[in-house]
Amino acid sequence: MHFPGCNISHLAVAASLALWVQTGYAAREEHTFEVSVSIPTHDFYVLPVDPGFVEREQQMDWNLVNGTLEPLRTLFDVRSTSGAVSARLGHEPVLSNGRDLIALNVIFNNQPLLLTNTVVVPDTEANIGSRVPLLIEAITPDAGFSAGEYFGSVQLVFDASFPMH
């Protein structure tokens, strides 16, 4: 078969180029992932030192020797140039396996948190910024801990107090 204006070398180059383009896509990988950043204001922030702490599930370890749950501990950086920082729980912190409940104590900067606001960092400390501990510990049920897979959540709500003039 003869194509006017084409010779064999043109057809060979075109065919090999087409083959090269097709095989060029045979080994291809693509990755898509989310990227985000939260840049706090310099006036008010309450952020975990380990940013992954609030992004991943926290595991309370079972102590086989004494039959208790090990508490969770982490540190937060806190600053408020407008006054003291108060905190409260968004809901009762409990772990559940669908039948049994394990209540949790949540203590921020050595202050037990409740469903009502409690000052956790006084204005003198908050104004310059400080690093404070968070402790979450299980309350041993009266009947002891029951076996099972437990899940729950802890919601912390922080507010900056405005000084009274």
Descriptive account of the structure:
It holds the Pfam family Fimbrial_CS1. Helix content is 14%, strand content 34%. Strands 1, 4, 6, 7, 8, 10 and 11 form a seven-stranded antiparallel β-sheet that branches. It has a three-stranded antiparallel β-sheet with strand order 9-5-12. The protein is built from two helices and twelve strands, in the order αβββββββββαβββ. The chain is of the alpha+beta class.
Q: How is this fold's topology laid out?
A:
Layout: H1 8-24, E1 44-48, E2 62-63, E3 68-69, E4 72-80, E5 85-89, E6 94-96, E7 101-108, E8 111-112, E9 118-121, H2 123-128, E10 130-138, E11 151-152, E12 156-160
Antiparallel strand pairs: 1-4, 2-3, 4-10, 5-9, 5-12, 6-7, 6-11, 7-8, 7-10
Strand content: 25-35%
Shape label: flat
Largest sheet: 7 strands, antiparallel
Portion in helices: 10-25%
Q: Name the helix and strand elements from N-terminus to C-terminus, one letter apiece.
A: HEEEEEEEEEHEEE
Structure summary, number of beta strands: 12
Radius of gyration based on Cα positions: 29 Å
**Average predicted confidence as pLDDT:** 86
Distance between the termini: 97 Å
* Low-pLDDT residue spans: none
Please work out how many helical segments DSSP would assign.
2
Content-based structural category: alpha+beta
Keywords:
alpha+beta, seven-stranded antiparallel sheet, 14% helix
In brief:
InterPro entries: Fimbrial_CS1-type. The protein is of the alpha+beta class and 165 residues long.
